[in-house]
Design goal:
By secondary structure, the protein is of the alpha+beta class. The chain has one domain. It has one helix and three strands. A three-stranded antiparallel beta sheet has the order 1-2-3, with helices on one face. The protein is elongated and about 50 Å long.
Length: 64
């Protein structure tokens, strides 16, 4: 069984770059949800979480 995630679109705004630490906002284009991030690692975790949520949703739909 191969599960394929749908494409996600994000708008990322870096508001500060002090001491090489990114801080800003990420907006999910599909549902216009915005969340702040305080580091590049936190930004990557938010993106990864969104992709994981999609995979879980697709698994549920495939079972039905």
């Amino acid at each position: 069984m191969k599960i394929r995630s749908k494409a996600q679109s994000f708008m990322i705004t870096v508001r500060e770059n002090d001491d090489k630490i990114w801080q800003g906002d990420i907006t999910w284009i599909d549902n216009n949800r915005t969340q702040q991030f305080r580091s590049a690692l936190e930004l990557l975790n938010l993106i990864n979480s969104a992709l994981e949520d999609d995979r879980e949703e697709e698994k549920k739909n495939e079972i039905l």
